[in-house]
Design goal:
The active site is at 153 (proton donor/acceptor), 161 (nucleophile). The chain has one domain (44-410). Helix 6 packs across helix 7 (264-284). Helix content is 29%, strand content 14%. The protein has 438 residues and is an alpha+beta fold. Strands 3-2-1-10-5 form a five-stranded mixed sheet, with helices on both faces. A five-stranded mixed sheet has the order 4-9-8-7-6. It has helices spanning 2-38, 44-52, 138-142, 166-181, 198-203, 210-226, 264-284, 303-312, 339-345; strands at residues 61-66, 71-77, 83-90, 93-94, 112-116, 121-122, 130-132, 151-153, 162-163, 187-192, 232-235, 238-241, 244-245, 260-263, 407-410.
């Protein structure tokens, strides 16, 4: 009588082994897929473009994001040591409205200066590929901002992130990977509400975030006149750029700014640009219409994506035409949802959020090549930049490999144009470490 029972037990064990093997194979396949995405080589077209612009895949990169225009720029260092624009990507989806992120659940995509290390790159993203913006930074923390899982990722769906198409984020991810492999220890992301031109500053002159935006524009101007990544610090709950504190002093995000130095060539160039921009803003403000201050808005997307969605309305698929930059899913504007509710009640990351990924040992990186950094005039009023395109090279100071003239001393204190009570927003994320293979 025991034989049928033995046969049954044997069959159960065999079935269990089969399930275990299937799960192991599935996990292996998933791992292979993650590795394939993370290590996808740059296309021949991108390699050719990099060469045409006097760059190499291994040179450092920098990213600028503009909400209102819905554009993401990738800049890379050329063989001369200056940064030049490599490519501009239309953003498929961003959420919230113009202005910084304040708290968890406000669906705001953050604005500010963020540093991306290899450990913030996530090849195992729920949104194809992603990198964590590293919110909250010191500035955000000084205002008590809350939020999690704020990314630049794929899948064209956002609840506080900057969402690209899968094809776009794949290329951006690969560009960052190659720069890390070349020795760059971290790259900078500059996230702005719009291009900081006199025209845009004049249009938004009544926005309650203007003082904050003028502080951001100081960093924007540093980059514009030097074509070097600005060194970012925070003191007095404000950003300061390319500033070296006097001996024995240090920057404290919550404390008053200490006395610090900036190279006079950079300070003078930034100040001259600020004066010229201010004059244009004053002139434009006499006649330029004022942009409405939106509340409760839910972000936007680049016109190329909006046009494609309208063209595809009623169609059974959302594949882009050949001239469009990638593919998007059917849902690009999910209903409003508090991120904390999404994370707790759904048992999965909310749109724009990331699942935790086990940490791996970070890749060994060579020291980053040193480059002269531009320095803005501390306390100088931030200004708008003329034109939507980067300024001509003629407007920048001496080449980055030339020694800068004597530094000018700037005394501490909160920039006069930024009040302590200004409303600022930010978002925060924690990303797993990843080892990349070439």
């Amino acid at each position: 009588m025991s034989r049928p029972k033995t046969i049954f037990s044997s069959r159960v064990r065999m079935a269990a082994l089969a399930v275990t093997a299937a799960l192991a194979l599935s996990a292996c396949n998933q791992t292979d897929e993650v590795a394939r995405k993370a290590n996808k080589p740059l296309s021949p077209q991108m390699v050719s473009l990099i060469g045409e612009k006097n760059m190499t895949p291994a040179t450092p990169l920098l990213v600028r994001i503009f909400k209102e225009e819905a554009e993401l720029e990738v800049w890379k260092q050329t063989t001369s040591g200056d940064y030049a624009l490599l490519k501009t990507y239309p953003i498929c989806r961003w959420s919230g409205e113009l202005g910084p992120k304040v708290k968890m659940g406000d669906r705001q995509a953050p604005e500010g200066f963020y540093t991306i290390s290899p450990g913030q790159m996530n090849p195992n993203s729920n949104y194809y590929l992603s990198f964590n913006l590293g919110f909250p930074n010191a500035f955000d923390k000084s205002y008590g901002r809350t939020g999690e899982f704020l990314m630049v990722h794929g899948d064209c769906s956002s609840a506080g992130c900057y969402a690209m198409t899968d094809e776009q984020i794949s290329e951006i991810f690969s560009l960052a990977r190659e720069s890390f492999a070349g020795g760059q220890r971290a790259f900078q992301v500059q996230a702005y509400p719009f291009r900081m031109t006199p025209k845009n500053i004049a249009r938004h002159r009544t926005n309650p975030n203007m003082a904050f935006w003028r502080n951001l524009k100081q960093g924007y101007d540093h980059f514009e006149v030097t074509r070097q990544e600005p060194k970012v610090n925070v003191c007095g709950r404000q950003y300061v750029f390319d500033a070296q504190p006097m001996p024995g002093a240090r920057f404290d995000a919550d404390g008053a700014c200490p006395p610090y130095q900036v190279p006079s060539a950079v300070a003078d160039a930034v100040a001259a640009k600020s004066r010229a921009d201010d004059a244009q803003v004053a002139a434009l403000s006499q006649t330029a219409p004022v942009a409405p201050v939106k509340t409760g808005a839910d972000g936007g997307m680049h016109p190329v994506f909006l046009a494609e969605i309208k063209r595809k309305q009623g169609a059974s698929e959302f594949a882009f035409s050949p001239e469009a930059p990638g593919t998007i899913p059917e849902t690009t504007r999910p209903p409003k949802m508090d991120e904390s509710v999404a994370l707790s009640s759904l048992g999965a990351p909310a749109p724009g959020a990331e699942a935790a990924v086990p940490a791996a040992a970070p890749a060994q990186l060579a020291p980053r090549p040193t480059a002269a950094a531009a320095v803005p005039a501390a306390g100088a009023k931030p200004q708008a930049v003329a034109g939507d395109k980067p300024q001509a090279a003629a407007s920048k100071p001496q080449a980055s490999n030339s020694p800068l003239p004597k530094p000018s001393l700037v005394v501490a204190g909160r920039p006069a144009n930024v009040a302590a009570s200004d409303t600022l927003q930010g978002a925060s994320e924690v990303m797993p470490t990843t080892t990349f293979t070439r």
